[in-house]
Specification:
Layout: H1 3-14, H2 44-57, E1 81-82, H3 87-93, E2 98-101, E3 107-113, E4 116-121, H4 125-139, E5 142-143, H5 145-161, E6 167-168, E7 171-174, E8 177-181, E9 189-192, E10 197-200, E11 208-209, H6 240-254, E12 262-266, H7 273-282, H8 298-306, E13 311-313, H9 321-332, E14 336-339, E15 347-350, E16 356-360, H10 369-373, E17 375-379, H11 391-419, H12 432-445, H13 451-470, H14 472-484, E18 490-492, H15 494-502, H16 507-510, H17 519-535, E19 539-543, E20 549-553
Parallel strand pairs: 1-5, 6-11, 12-16, 12-17, 13-16
Antiparallel strand pairs: 2-3, 3-4, 7-8, 8-9, 9-10, 14-15, 18-20, 19-20
Helix pairs in contact: 3-4, 6-13, 11-12, 12-13, 13-17, 15-17
C-alpha cells in the first residue's frame, strides 16, 4: 500500500473530507478484518485467523478489486462516505444559496437549479436532497446522515440571520402587481399589472412562492375571443346569478385578497357539484387530490390548509359549529394555531386567508349564520339525461378551453388593478373588499357595472332564508315574539328566554345538539342568530348592567 493511499484512508476514518480530486482509489490489498488491518500484506495467517471471526459474525465481506480495476465475480465497489464537513466543503456547498426567514421565523433558502430559482424550506425534504447532491458534487462522496444534519443546522443559523420575507402559495400581491405561480418545472409565474399580463421566469419577480407535494401546474394563459363566456358550458348553473357568483369566486382567488368568500355549491344528486368544484380548482390551484372529505377533526383541516392554497371539502352531510367557525377564520385570514406533533407546548400556525369550496346535497351548513353571511350560495340545476356528456368528452373539452379561460380571468384581474382604487359602492356587504374588487374587474369581463352587486343581493337573501329555515333557535324566537309580543317586543335574561322557548318547542327539538341547554349557551346562540333576526326586520339589543338582558323588538307594522 502506498503512503498516499494510507494517508487517505486515515483521513476518511478520522472524519476528514476527501476532495473529489483525491478520491480513494481501489487498493491492491486484502479486505480489512473486523478487528483492524493486518500488520503486513504478506501475512496470510492473520487473514486466515480473521476468516472464522467473519463467518461467526455473519456473511463474509466481498473482496475489493485490484489496483487495475479488475475484480472477481460479485465484487462491490463502495465509494467513501463524507463523515464530517470541513469549512472549505461547506463553503462550496452553500455557494450561491440565499438564506432568509419568513415572518413567523421559519428558515428558508433560495437555490438555483437548472437555471431557475426555487424557494425551499431548510427543514424540508427537498432542501435535504439538494444539500446531499451539492455535498456529493463538492466532496466527491455521499454524506452520512450526521454530516447532512450538521450542514442543515448550519443553514438554519444562516437563515435566522438572513433577511425576512413574506411567503405565499400560488397567488401573491407585490408592488402593485399580482403574481400567480404556474407551479411548472421552471418555476414561472404569471405577472398581472394594470396594463397587461405575461408569463415571466422565477428570477424576474420578487415573490417567495412555496410549493408542497400535490400541487400541479397551471397551463400558460392564452388570449380568448369569447372571454369568460367560454366557461359557461362547464357550469351547470341554475340561473344567471349563479354563474356570476362562480366567476366572482374565481376572480377573488386570483385577486390576492385579505379575505375570501366561501363558495357553497348545492343541488340535487347528479347536478355536477363535485365536477364543478374540481374545475374551479383546476382554474386556480390544481392539485393531485382536488377534493377532500370532511375532516375528522380540526387538526386534519389545519394540516390540509397549511399545504395548499385552496381548501375544497366535498359531500358535507353535517356542519358542526367548530368546523364552521374554523372555516370562517380561514376564509377571513385569522391566524389558526395547533400543537405541533410530538411536542408538549410548541405550536404551528396557519396564517393568511384561504379560498374555500364546499359541496353537499341540501343546506347542511345553513344553521351556521356566520358561515352563511360569508358564503356565495351557488345553486346547480339538475342535468337532463338527454344533455349529459361523458367525463372523457367533458374533460377533453375543458382541457382545451382552460388556457383561454385563465387568459380571460387575467384580463379581468388587470382591469381590477386599474379600477379598484376608484370603485365606490352605495351599499357595502359583509364581504366589502371582495365586492369592490369584483366590481372593479367587471369591465374586463364585458359585464355591466353592478352585475355582481345584483347577484350578491339575490344570493344574500337566498343564504339568509336557508340559514333561517335551518336554525331552530331563530325560528322559535321569531314565532315567540310575533305570537306573544307582536307590538312592544320582549325583554329579559337569556335564562328566561330559554324557559319561554322550551315551553313552546317539542321535546325532539330540545334534544337537538344545536339547541341550547343552559342560559349561558342561550346567550351565545343569541349572538349567532342576531343577524338572521335582523334580516327578518327584528331589532336585537343587549343591555348590560346589574342584570344582563336581551331586548327583541319585532319589525314595525306597515
Amino acid at each position: 500500500m502506498s503512503p498516499e493511499a494510507a494517508a487517505r484512508i486515515a483521513a476518511l476514518v478520522t472524519g476528514e473530507v476527501i476532495p473529489a480530486a483525491e478520491a480513494l482509489p481501489h487498493v491492491d490489498a486484502p479486505p480489512l478484518a473486523p478487528d483492524g488491518p493486518p500488520e503486513a500484506e504478506d501475512a496470510p495467517a492473520a487473514a486466515d485467523a480473521a476468516a472464522p471471526a467473519r463467518r461467526r459474525r455473519g456473511r463474509p465481506r466481498k473482496a475489493r478489486g485490484g489496483a487495475d480495476g479488475e475484480g472477481g465475480e460479485g465484487e462491490e465497489k463502495r465509494p467513501p462516505r463524507v463523515r464530517s464537513t470541513s469549512a472549505e466543503t461547506v463553503g462550496g456547498v452553500l455557494d450561491g444559496v440565499e438564506f432568509w426567514h419568513s415572518t413567523d421565523n421559519e428558515p428558508y433558502a433560495t437555490v438555483e437549479i437548472d437555471g431557475h430559482h426555487e424557494h425551499l424550506s431548510v427543514l424540508g425534504k427537498s432542501f435535504e436532497l439538494f444539500l446531499a447532491e451539492r455535498i456529493y458534487d463538492v466532496a466527491g462522496s455521499a454524506p452520512t446522515t450526521n454530516a447532512l444534519r450538521d450542514v442543515q443546522r448550519l443553514c438554519c443559523i444562516h437563515s435566522k440571520k438572513g433577511p425576512e420575507h413574506e411567503v405565499f402559495r400560488r397567488v401573491a400581491r407585490a408592488g402593485g402587481c399580482i403574481y400567480v405561480d404556474l407551479c411548472d418545472r421552471t418555476w414561472q409565474a404569471i405577472e398581472i399589472t394594470k396594463d397587461r399580463w405575461a408569463v415571466i421566469p422565477s428570477a424576474a419577480h420578487p415573490v417567495k412562492f412555496l410549493r408542497s407535494r400535490g400541487m400541479q401546474a397551471l397551463p400558460e394563459p392564452e388570449l380568448s375571443d369569447r372571454g369568460i363566456e367560454e366557461l359557461r358550458e362547464f357550469v351547470n348553473a341554475d340561473g344567471p346569478d349563479d354563474f356570476t357568483l362562480v366567476v366572482s369566486w374565481l376572480l377573488a382567488a386570483f385577486g390576492g385578497l385579505s379575505a375570501f368568500p366561501i363558495a357553497v355549491l348545492s343541488g340535487e344528486a347528479g347536478s355536477g357539484k363535485s365536477r364543478l368544484a374540481e374545475k374551479m380548482r383546476a382554474l386556480t390551484d390544481p392539485h393531485i387530490a382536488p377534493m377532500r372529505s370532511p375532516p375528522r377533526d380540526l387538526r386534519d383541516l389545519f394540516a390540509g390548509a397549511s399545504n395548499q392554497f385552496i381548501t375544497c371539502i366535498d359531500n358535507i352531510s353535517r356542519m358542526e359549529t367548530d368546523l364552521s367557525d374554523s372555516l370562517c377564520r380561514m376564509a377571513s385570514g385569522s391566524a389558526e394555531a395547533t400543537r405541533a406533533l410530538n411536542t408538549n407546548a410548541e405550536e404551528v400556525y396557519l396564517t393568511g386567508a384561504r379560498p374555500i369550496i364546499l359541496t353537499g346535497i341540501g343546506d347542511h351548513w345553513g344553521q351556521q349564520s356566520d358561515l352563511a353571511t360569508r358564503s356565495l350560495a351557488i345553486k346547480l340545476a339538475a342535468i337532463p339525461e338527454t344533455e349529459r356528456r361523458t367525463d372523457v368528452d367533458l374533460d377533453a373539452a375543458f382541457a382545451a378551453a382552460r388556457p383561454r379561460i385563465i387568459g380571460a380571468l387575467c384580463d379581468a384581474v388587470s382591469s381590477g388593478l386599474r379600477r379598484e382604487g376608484t370603485v365606490r359602492l352605495e351599499r357595502l356587504p359583509r364581504l366589502a373588499d371582495f365586492a369592490r374588487w369584483v366590481t372593479a374587474c367587471e369591465p374586463g369581463l364585458g359585464w355591466e357595472e353592478g352585475t355582481l352587486a345584483a347577484a350578491l343581493e339575490a344570493g344574500r337573501h337566498e343564504s339568509s332564508a336557508t340559514a333561517f329555515d335551518a336554525d331552530e333557535v331563530a325560528k322559535a324566537i321569531h314565532a315567540f315574539i310575533l305570537d306573544d309580543h307582536p307590538v312592544a317586543g320582549w325583554e329579559g335574561t337569556a335564562g328566561r328566554l330559554l324557559t319561554a322557548l322550551n315551553a313552546r318547542v317539542s321535546e325532539e327539538v330540545r334534544r337537538l345538539r344545536s339547541w341550547p341547554g343552559n342560559p349561558t349557551a342561550m346567550g351565545t346562540r343569541i349572538e349567532r342568530v342576531a343577524g338572521l333576526l335582523r334580516w327578518k326586520g327584528f331589532a336585537v339589543i343587549r343591555r348590560r348592567g346589574a342584570e344582563r338582558t336581551i331586548a327583541i323588538k319585532p319589525p314595525p307594522t306597515k
